[in-house]
Amino acid sequence: MMVDLGSFSDEKFDAKKWINNAVKARHPADALEKHLVDLEMKLQLMSEEISASLEEQSSASILRVPRATRDVIRIRDDAVSLRSSISTILTKIKQAEGSAADSIAALAKVDTVKYRMEAAYKTLQDAAGLTQLSSTVEDVFASGDLPRAAETLASMRHCLSAVGEVAEFANVRKQLEVLEDRLDAMVQPRLMDALSNRKVDVAQEMRGILVRIGRFQSLEVYYTKVHLKSIKQLWDEFESRQRTTKFQTNHSANTNEFQSNHSSVSFSTWLPSFYDELLLCLEQEWKWCMIAFPDDYKTLVPKLLIETMLAVNSSFISRINLATGDAVPETKALAKGTLDLLSGDMPKGKIHSKHLDAMIELHNVTNTFARNIQHLFSESAMQVLLDTMKAVYSPFETFKKKYGQMERTILASEIGKLDLRGAVARGVGAQGIELSETVRRMEESVPQVILLLEAAVERCINFTGGSEADELIVALDDIMLQYISMLNETLKSLRAVCGVDNTSDIIKRDSGSDKKEGTHNPRKADLITNEEEWSMVQGALQILTVADCLTSRSSVFEASLRATLSRLSTSLPVSAFGEDQNQRQLSIDDGNVSVNLAGGAALDMATVRLADAPEKARKLVSLLEQSKDPRFHALPLASHRVSTFEETVNELVYDVLISKVRQRLSDVSRMPIWASAEETSAFPLPSFSSYPQSYITSIGEYLLTLPQQLEPLAEGISSDDANADEAQFFATEWMFKVAEGATAIYVEQLRGIQYITERGAQQLSVDIEYLANVLSALSVPIPSILTTFQTCLSTPKDQLKDLIKSDSTTQLDLPIANLICKMRRVNLDP
Known about the structure:
The chain is mainly α and 830 residues long. Helix content is 73%, strand content 1%. It folds into 4 domains: 6-124, no CATH class; 266-400; 409-514 and 522-640, no CATH class; 667-823, no CATH class. Residues 29-56 form a coiled coil.
């Protein structure tokens, strides 16, 4: 049986567990007592062996201690000796360092003198060489060897840079400049001939000469000069064709023989063909320059296009101006364009959307050309590509800077064409027709205006790529304010049509401020029929549809505008303060704009525009960031005005709906029946009518009929099931509003009664009860004031005092009860 002693060294050794495991490991045939005895014997033997081994090794260790002690003492003596030696060496090194520093300083001075002597020697050599070159340079030029002349001039410049500003060589410096100009002039005809006739070897040789004398810009100038002439001819072809057509037209008019083979071509039709020919020319130059100037073609050909656009820029702007003017007959007849309209040359003329549409059409053609150019110049450096794109779009920049003004003028002109008038006072009986017609025009104008605004947004994206979004927002807000102002002016005229323009006078009479005695003054409303009156009510209710349409349409448009700004924030290649530079084409940091194209992305018109306008880019970024806030209003002023307009509409409609009530109740407090004396009779007949008077029945009939008038409008709102609840709430709200208003006016009139007899009190009680029944039928809560009037007036005069002092006074309005006592001359004092 083997015994594993490894587990005895474990810190968590458990004797019981070890014994149990040893017992489990015994052979089943072995007896337990025998197995344990064997195990105990083996452990005892092993412990004796371990004790003997430990004793033996301890004795050996004790014998080795004296030897180890002697070794330690010897090592310590060696360390002391070594420390002394090192200290001596350090002292010698410090002494040597002091003397070496002086030697090194002396050597440094010697080296400086040597370097200066070598520089002086070299300068003297360059001066001698410069003198020699200056004396022989004329012979080199006379030989006609241009490469040798270039090398000589390069050597002279090198010698001059080595000599520095020495007065003796000032004339040589001037001579060198003259000679470089002279060599440049000698290279020009050969280089231009080589460029014109496609002589690659000669062109490369002349290019090397110019580069050798530091005149690479001359290569760009000569290269551009050679090819610009032919391109300019392509551009001038349009005007020559126009002149030819005009001449032939005039000639045919004089001779009556019109046989011209040419027809007048518009600039928008001709421009694509010009771009095609220009692109073909540039492609050919790109391929040739790749062979002739492999190190320079990426800048030479773009430079040619930049200079071309610079040369035709003013003419291009003029042609765009006239081409946009041709879109509208009035400006075409006067040969005027958009810029003329903006400058005020045509005081009576206004920019039309067709002008801007024509400009966008030309811009789209330029967009196509710009994409082709970018693809052709894709190998060029970013700055070169950016400069090229700026040149391509430069003719339109004048118009883009005035985009906000153009858009505002266009929209203002379109808004001014809306005919919302029709609320002019006409004959009696025609107000309902006038009101209906005006409201119809107002309602139809809302979607028209929204379409105009949506078209403006689309024009902004197409023409500026969204870079003028900030100007667009301001223009849209201003135009909406103009339109809402027109609606408000129309509402003012509708007040006269509806007969509620003198509401303040009515209120004064209702409140008792008009102290004049007499009956109700006839008003215009008294002269119209009941049918006409209800047609006016129905027309006034339709104004609510105008307000609802304006609110919903403007809200949807503003949400759409915010969504457009959100799309621009992801599509426009602008980021502020360098964020997302890997994804953005433009990043703004500390007022600087940097361009970054990743993954072969294309430069768009917005990138080109904003690259040199950090302030505008920062302003645009701020707007786009604000648009992400849910509380952001794209049209802040217009949004507020829309809410105000809705309130104005509600006020007008309420005044119209309540005007009949005001009219019928205007003289209730002064009706003579309240103070009429009781009639004597031999029979016990009632001294008052058991029927309500006509003034209150007419109001009751009006209120009961009003839901029928609200029903068509509610059905118009609830065109689908989703709005059914909203329509029901709308009708109920207005029903309650008119009923409560009528009750308030009636109560105010009742307060104005100075004296009422018993007969008058009984009659007024019947009138109030009738109104209460009407309100109950309409499910309108009856105010406690009206209930108090009805209760106190129906109570006999001699019982009124007891009624007020009884326990039921909790149901009465005490101030009103006291007022009724004064009316009935009941003294409440004991």
